[in-house]
Amino acid sequence: MTSHARRLIWIPILFAIFASAATAQNTRLTVFISDTHFGVGKTQDGNWHPYEDARWAPEFKLFLEELNRQGNGHTDLILNGDTFELWQSLDNDCTYPDENLSCTEVEALRRLRRVIAAHQAELDSIRAFAVAGDNRVFILPGNHDAALQFSGLAAEVLRAIGAPADRVTITTDGYWLSADGMIYAEHGHQIGKDPNEFSNWPTPFVEKNGVIYMQRPWGEQFVQKFYNSYEMKYPIIDNIMGEIAGVRYGFAAEGNFGVVRALGSFFVFYLLQSSWTQINQSLGSQQGSKWDTVAIRKGGDRFFAESIPNDDPLRSLVEKSLSDGTFGTKLSDLTDEDLQSICDVRAAIVADDTRNHKTPRVTLCPKLSLGAAAASVIQSRDTIFQKHLTDMWNRLRASGKTRPFTLFVFSHTHLAEASYSPFERSSSSWRPIVVNTGAWQRTISEQQLQSLMRDKGLQARDVLKLQPENLPPCYPVIIVSPYSSTPQSLLRYWKQAGGNWSFADTCN
User: Fold this and answer.
1) d(CA 459, CA 253)
2) What is the pLDDT of residues 35-82, one digit of tens each?
3) What is the signed CA dihedral for 50, 54, 57, 63, rounded to 10 degrees?
4) DSSP H/E element including 491
5) Which residues, 6+ apart, have CB-to-CB distance to 65 below 8 Å?
6) Local confidence band at 254 (pLDDT 50, 70, 90 cut-offs)
7) Is 204's pLDDT higher than 90?
8) What beta strand segments (E) does 308-421 contain?
């Protein structure tokens, strides 16, 4: 594509920006949380079921009361996906010979009713918030509660909350857009090569022999084959931020993962997206190298194992899976852009180890000649988000929207992030800011976990013996104050300190 053609692409966006700048405004407080994962509740003996992550109804009630106070009854609260945990069940249901098929509407409704019964207290708090002043609540389905796209499930949730129809809405378009068009939010499971994506989102259904089923993405298969069995023994395994971290500690505790089909799908996601923060910290704004994808492909599928640090126990798992033919993914399944992205991660690891005077735990990928390297540089995360955000704006424009959003809010990864600008290094004049809500549950980062292990004298194999109640009482939230031109977001934390609850800048 010529530079002239690239400039033409952005002309409609520039016109829209200039034409709408004067009228953008929002007089309401706008708040985003996500991934509460209201689940199966308690067992018959009154103890929390190991599957249950949402054990915090009292602090959730206090949180909503404080939002109402700070917004003076004029707050829009967006529950940005995975409000309900509908991938986990105590029954042997939604299981079919075709592993791509999940629940029917009747089966999903049965799961939802158990969740509602277990979490009526939280739903009552949502109702109390929604009916106060002129507050409004918007519930977006995520990947774990995509079944809310069934009309019967959406109606069941609204009945359980019991607020007027104009106060609580289940948004089934796959996104939420502010009234002035400046803030766009979605759960985030459709971004990049995510193993949780649905083929035809926001329609997550498959019809077979006249019956409508939920599609079962690979991520759901992984949760049910790995996380469910491990969470029965280790309830915090999915409270460790970053999808790969819990898997790593599970391996340390058990020494193996049992049988997990198509493990490669998970590791491609891990290699492509789990180390963005590390890349930013290690490489900063420096341009990376242009990697020789032809030479990489000649090396074969060993590339997957070689891309995992040699001190990571997951490496031996990948090596075994490759050798016995159960990995399920081949190098030929990856695009050249994917290879460039993974090589960027490897370069970040090498840079970090070198800076800390350590022997590099991975090797660099082969580079192209200097001339070819100067021709173009793949910025992996930028590329993924530039494409996704441009696609989203084009869809909005095709539906009649005239203003490009300037703030993009997503969730899904459980990793809160205050501000990221994917177009910063591009020639585009459109510079939307990207923020991540994190998960509104008790989570812990690997850095915090390492500190906790030192304080308690824990080994890696002992980490998963902790309970969610042992984790910091701290919940992330994205807050956008009323604005007259451009929305500005702030990442805050609903945190307990000294027995009192209040908003803070960090969880430390």
Assistant:
1) 10
2) 999 999 999 999 999 999 999 999 999 999 999 999 999 999 999 999
3) 150
4) strand 489-497
5) 128, 129
6) low
7) yes
8) 407-410, 417-420
Cα three-residue angle 103-107-111, rounded to 5 degrees:
105
CATH fold, domain 29-217+382-508, is Purple Acid Phosphatase; chain A, domain 2 (3.60.21)
Instruction: Give me the residue label for tokens 């009649």.
Output: 400
Instruction: For strands 407-410 and 211-214, give the pairing.
Output: unpaired
- Ranges of each domain in the chain: 29-217+382-508, 240-274+288-376
- Total Cβ atoms within 10 A of residue 331: 18
Identify the pLDDT of residue 379: 52
Q: Give CA separation, 384 vs 43, 373, 411, 414, in Å.
A: 42, 20, 15, 18
| Contacts (Cβ under 8 Å, ≥6 apart) of 298 | none
Distance CA 488, CA 435 (A): 11
Q: What mean pLDDT is predicted for residues 336-353?
A: 83
Rounded-to-integer distance, Cα 404 and Cα 129, Å: 30
How buried is 481 (Cβ within 10 angstroms: 0-12 exposed, 13-18 middle, 19+ buried)? middle
The pair of structure tokens assigned to 407 is 């703030």
Long-range CB contacts (< 8 A, 24+ apart) of 492-500?
A: 494/59, 494/63, 494/66, 496/59
Residue 275: predicted pLDDT? 45
Strands (E), 270-328: none
Question: Do 94 and 112 form a contact (C-beta atoms < 8 A)?
Answer: no
Contact (Cβ atoms closer than 8 angstroms) between residue 46 and residue 118: no
Q: Are the beta carbons of 176 and 396 closer than 8 angstroms?
A: no
> In 198-315, at which residue ranges do the beta strands (DSSP E only) sit?
205-208, 211-214
CB atoms within 10 A of CB 498: 6
pLDDT digits (tens, 9 = 90+) for 143-160: 999 999 999 999 999 999
> Which region among 74-78, 150-154, 180-184, 256-260 has the lowest average model confidence (pLDDT)?
256-260
pTM of the full predicted structure? 0.80
Q: Taking phi first (over 0 means left), then psi (-120 to 50 degrees means alpha), and beta for anything else, what does residue 435 get? A: beta
Q: What does the alpha-carbon distance between residue 225 and residue 266 come to, in Å, rounded to a whole number?
A: 12
